[in-house]
Write a structure and sequence with these properties.
- The structure holds 2 protein chains of 2 kinds.
- Chain A is mainly beta.
- Chain A contains 7 helices and 22 strands.
- In chain A, 13% of the residues lie in helices and 43% in strands.
- By secondary structure, chain B is of the alpha+beta class.
- Chain B has helices spanning 2-20, 52-68, 99-106, 152-167, 205-221, 267-270, 272-278, 315-319, 328-333, 346-349, 372-375, 379-391, 394-403, 409-431, 452-455, and strands at 26-27, 35-36, 116-119, 130-133, 139-143, 174-179, 184-186, 231-237, 242-246, 289-294, 301-306, 437-443, 446-451, 464-471, 477-484, 490-494, 505-514, 517-518, 523-530, 533-540.
- The two termini of chain B are 50 Å apart.
- Classes of the chains: A mainly beta, B alpha+beta.
- At the A-B interface, α1, β3, α3, β4 and α4 of A face α1, β1, β2, α2 and α9 of B.
- β3 of chain A pairs parallel with β2 (35-36) of chain B.
Chain lengths: 527, 541
């Protein structure tokens, strides 16, 4: 075979053999030729792009300057405008009235307004356009996601918050809002999703939230909320949720779970961190009023079914393999088994927030107290009471937008009988920005935040958190700490997104939240 | 087969080569458009408002992400005519700058007449205002000064509104007035044909009455009365039609068929960078653009206004403690403890003046929120803005400052001087963004151009040279070109016969060099020479 040919096979490259059969030479097949041409074109285009904006060349001083022909002296400086210049007026020139009308030429088509018949082309435009086409799918996907958010939203009413009276009059309802969401939190899989809010007449709004973080991670939530300003500002919200989260961490009870005798680890495992899957089906009804400018009162009640089993993809780290099966209240009772519990939880809460708005760094004070009662309704007689307090001061330093905020959070569960409380109901350290893996009946977190606005709607943040948990006040363990920094993007009413790095003895954590703001407090919606 | 592949490779390469060659725009042989017919009757559009959360995430996250994935060049402005000017439209309508003619054009309604009935409505034309109806039934939005800085905010609103209108933008009428306690009454049940409500206001008459009483009381007490016991305020005539909400920050307004140019591609909005820098609009945001429907519903059209002038002239730097020349990185690095720069001591002396420095760094000026149009500004836009600013005469500025009714004559004089000093800085920056020449006349032998930077004394004429190049419409050079070293601001660019392309369409490119440093952009003049003579059909900076 002394000429190369394309093989009818699926192989791309073809090898030609010399007549002698002993010498092999590579010959380019179709694709190689085309690729070579394409590469050459690409390199040329890149080079052209670079040449598209060369620094203006300084004229060569050796070049003879252009001298106008002597017969054509430069025009006088006081030359009349061209339409009045005799040299440009032809015998066919329209009369003055028509000229005046033409002078006021009207058009609406932008192409006609600019007067451009053929647009300018720069070197490299072709390659730029090719790149633009290649990037069109992700770009347009993002664009659609964001450009649908062109109307007002009622996100504030979708939180456990009662709008202030001036917020009612300031905001105008729109129709449909679609909002992307993004979360990244240590100990959880990253998740993305969308949040759609429909603002209706008379203060009514509905929302639908979906999200996923991969297999065994799903979220579907729907709400209907009513917010009115008379006689007092109030909100009423009904909502339903299904979610499934997997690879959730459980280290056991107490501040030092490995040494806490309440935790019964299996003997044959070296792991001390268990993983589980948690499914929830939940309905919440809540209502709130704002008796005065800065105070809110809430009543809420939830009905939640919990299903907990081993995390399917975590092998030896699954809860039944780390802890003795059945030893974790609310955990899987056996290998491959799942526990199921339905709990009704009701709560009353009072809140004082003197900040003008919650998003920007502002001076003020925040205090909240709550009292709740929970009971199992699926045959178990588990009951507990829950109460707590959280308070914060927001003090300015040097500037109004430099805010230092000491905070204290206390959450306390008290069993009302001897039936153990499921582990997922225990007080956690959700306000702790390290790895929040501890849980017990009492959790306290103290923190110091410093926020400073350095650009419009953006602030920096430094924080120090200290947290401890225990079965009671006297048994609180040695506190854990975390320090970190981050940034927040905020609107006037609330945060839009934030990111932070936290450093603690457990490691470095990265937090990212975009979309639905974190609400300070609100046990019903927290894990 | 081999020749075919080789041919294909050559063709591909040739196509890429040809596609990559530079080619100037080609203009139609037509009179430039001087008016955009965007006043065609349209139906009254629905009110459009945006939620901060949604819009901010779009501005801070969504749009930067989308734009980062766009590899094409920055689009040129699409609201300019063939001569690189902005035609009259519902966005831009130049007025006579002769003082009496200007006042006539500016004053559509005139100042408010007491007594005032206070409405339970929004006041979107600025910060913290109340809506009232005056004796003649006209709706105004009234604003007061901070308690410790009398006259600062009200004066800024009145002065800047006039200057912005003088630039050709639509700005509402703002008047300084005062009134006693007794001139105000609440009107819980009143409405107005131009009411601006959210639909969320309380309906119960008693609640409305209480809220209005509280609002009025707080408004009156926000600053002390003057010696005569009267309360000074700025009165903004708003809306001068039917307020239909915010102007979209990017894209077009979907329910306005007249709106055909994406707003980020409007030169009028791009040029706001220079306007904002000149007038110290530190808190200018896209929220300060509002649309008004003018005319009977069904027969009117939208007009696009700039509001929020109470935040200009350094007012926010005083009231809101926001530095005029913000430096985000310094503030970030110093944890917010960097001292406020650029608050001149003179403004501590005169409380009626905001923190308005004599110098202004236009390059560092930015609005309070990302503003896509400003991000798209190019040298030609900056030059156009500088020309508009240059057209506002000292006399016009004086007229505007007088309208601010600043009591202290020294403060008034200082404000006037500061505005003029800043104007020169802004002009110097604007002219430096391109070859700052305008075509003055065209004839067969050449084009007379004027260098505005030289003419207005920003550049010494002796230091400027101009490199002239000639091309045909496909971008091929038609002549070796020349270097011109004129004596003054006005000079002739010759059009030699040999430089004229075969089809008569010739592009003449003029690149200015000051002290040997080329300008960032050139001036491109497109001429057609035929039996009718030589005509200028296009100009681009």
């Amino acid at each position: 075979m002394n000429r190369w040919q394309a093989r009818p096979s699926s192989k791309v490259y073809t090898m030609a053999v010399s007549p002698a059969g002993a010498e092999y030479t590579w010959k380019p097949p179709h694709l190689r030729c085309t690729l070579a041409a394409a590469v050459a074109a690409f390199v040329y285009a890149i080079a052209s792009s670079a040449w598209a904006h060369p620094p203006p060349a300084t004229p060569n001083p050796l070049d003879p300057p252009y001298i106008p022909p002597p017969a054509e002296p430069p025009p006088p400086v006081d030359t009349a405008p061209p339409d009045q210049d005799a040299s440009t007026v032809s015998p066919d020139e329209p009369p003055e009235e028509e000229q005046a009308a033409a002078h006021k030429r009207r058009a609406i088509d932008p192409a006609e307004v600019t007067g451009i018949v053929t647009p300018e082309r720069e070197r490299g435009d072709t390659m730029r356009e090719v790149g633009n086409v290649l990037l069109a799918p992700p770009r347009e996907s993002f664009a659609v996601l964001f450009t649908l958010t062109r109307t007002m939203t009622v996100l504030a009413e979708q939180q456990q918050l009662v709008p202030k009276l001036n917020q009612f009059t300031k905001e105008k309802r729109g129709e449909i809002t679609l909002f992307p969401t993004m979360f990244f939190d240590p100990g959880r899989r990253p998740s993305v999703g969308g949040f759609m809010v429909t603002g209706g007449p008379g203060g009514l709004s509905t929302s639908l939230r979906v999200g996923t973080g991969g297999p065994n991670e799903a979220l579907l939530e729907t709400r209907i909320a009513l917010a009115r300003s008379t006689p007092l500002p109030f909100t009423a919200v009904a909502e339903a949720l299904y979610d499934m989260r997997t690879s959730l961490q459980y280290l056991g009870l107490g501040q030092d779970p490995e040494k806490d005798l309440r935790n019964r680890f299996r003997d044959m495992t070296r792991y001390r961190e268990a993983r589980y899957r948690h499914q929830r089906v939940r309905a919440i009804v809540s209502g709130g009023i704002r008796p005065s400018e800065n105070t809110e009162l809430f009543v809420s009640s939830s009905y939640t079914t919990h299903i907990v089993d081993d995390s399917p993809d975590d092998g030896g780290r699954a809860m039944s393999f780390v802890f003795q099966p059945g030893s974790v209240p609310g955990g899987p009772p056996t290998f491959d088994g799942a526990s199921r519990a339905t709990i009704v939880y009701s709560e009353v809460a009072a809140r004082l927030d003197t900040r003008i708005d919650r998003g920007a760094p502002r001076e003020g004070a925040f205090a909240e107290g709550y009292l709740g009662y929970a009971a199992a309704v699926n045959g178990s007689d588990m009951q507990y009471g829950r109460f707590g307090f959280r308070g914060a001061l927001f003090l300015s330093l040097y500037r109004k937008t430099n805010i230092i905020a000491p905070k204290l959070v206390v959450d306390w569960l008290q069993p009302l009988n001897r039936t153990p409380i499921p582990f997922y109901e225990l007080a956690r350290e959700t306000d702790f920005r390290g790895f929040h893996t501890r849980r017990d009946q009492l959790s306290t977190t103290a923190s110091l935040d410093y926020r400073w606005g350095f650009a419009p709607q953006i602030s920096g943040r430094l924080f120090v958190d200290v947290n401890t948990v225990g079965s009671e006040l006297a048994k609180l363990g040695l506190p854990r700490w975390a320090v970190g920094f981050g940034m927040d993007i905020y609107a006037s009413l609330q945060d839009i997104g934030s990111w932070a790095f936290s450093f603690s003895p457990d490691g470095v954590g990265f937090f990212l939240s975009f979309g639905v703001p974190n609400s300070f407090g609100d046990r019903q919606h927290k894990e | 087969m081999r020749p075919i592949f080789s041919l294909l490779a050559v063709l591909t390469l040739s196509a890429a080569t040809l596609a990559c060659a530079r080619r100037p725009a080609r203009f139609a042989d037509a009179t430039p458009v001087t008016e955009v017919a965007d006043d065609e009757p349209i139906d009254l559009p629905l009110l459009v408002e945006y939620n901060d959360v949604v819009e901010f995430s779009d501005l801070f996250v969504g749009r930067p992400l989308v734009e980062a994935m766009r590899t094409t060049r920055k689009p040129p402005p699409a609201d300019i005519n063939a001569h690189d000017e902005v035609p009259t439209s519902s966005w831009f309508a130049p007025v006579s700058l002769e003082p009496s003619a200007f006042e006539l054009a500016y004053t559509e309604s005139g100042p408010p007449v007491p007594p005032y009935r206070v409405l339970l409505e929004r006041a979107p034309s600025g910060n913290n205002g109340i809506a009232v109806i005056d004796q003649l039934g006209r709706r105004f939005e009234l604003r007061r000064d901070p308690a410790d800085r009398p006259e600062v905010r009200t004066a800024a609103a009145a002065v800047s509104a006039r200057i912005v209108r003088a630039l050709g933008y639509y700005a509402p009428e703002v008047y300084i007035s005062d009134a006693a306690d007794g001139d105000f009454a609440i009107a819980p049940d009143d409405s107005h044909p131009s009411s601006i409500t959210s639909g969320m206001e309380p309906q119960d008459p008693e609640v409305r009455r209480k809220q209005l009483t509280k609002t009025l009381q707080e408004w009156l007490e926000s600053a002390p009365a003057n010696k005569k016991g009267a309360y000074r305020f700025s009165a903004t005539r708003w809306p001068p039609g039917i307020d239909v909400g915010r102007t979209p920050v990017a894209g077009v307004r979907s329910n306005d068929p007249n709106d055909r140019v994406p707003h980020e591609n409007r030169r009028t909005l791009r040029a706001m960078k220079l306007v904002g820098a000149w007038l110290g609009m530190t808190r200018f945001t896209p929220h300060d653009l509002r649309d008004v429907y003018r005319g009977i519903p069904g027969e009117g059209h939208l007009v696009h206004y700039i509001v929020g002038m109470d935040k200009s002239l350094g007012t926010e730097a005083i009231v809101g403690k926001r530095p005029e020349q913000k430096d985000e990185m310094t503030l970030l690095a110093t944890l917010g403890f960097a001292p406020d720069p650029n608050i001149p001591p003179t403004q501590r002396k005169y409380k009626a003046l905001g923190a308005l420095g004599e110098e202004v760094d236009v390059g560092r000026y930015g609005p309070a929120l990302p503003f896509p149009a400003m991000d798209q500004i190019d040298g030609a836009d900056a030059y156009w803005a500088a020309k508009r600013i240059a057209s506002v005469t000292d006399e016009m500025v004086q007229l505007a400052v007088r309208a601010g009714k600043v009591g202290n004559s020294d403060a008034r004089k200082l404000l006037f001087e500061l505005i003029l000093a800043r104007k020169r800085h802004v002009l110097a920056w604007g002219y430096a963004q391109t070859t700052p020449c305008d075509v003055e006349a065209v004839e067969d032998r050449g084009i007379v151009v004027v260098d505005r930077a030289v003419a207005e004394g920003f550049t010494a004429g002796q230091t400027v040279e101009y490199v002239v190049s000639y091309f045909d419409s496909s971008g091929e050079p038609t002549h070796p070109g020349a270097v011109l070293s004129p004596e003054g601001a006005r000079f002739a660019v010759p059009i030699p016969r040999s430089a004229v392309a075969a089809d008569g369409y010739t592009v003449i490119r003029l690149m200015g060099e000051v002290g040997g440093v080329p300008a960032p952009r050139h001036l491109e003049m497109h001429v057609i020479r035929d039996g009718k003579g030589t005509r200028l059909v296009g100009v681009r900076h």
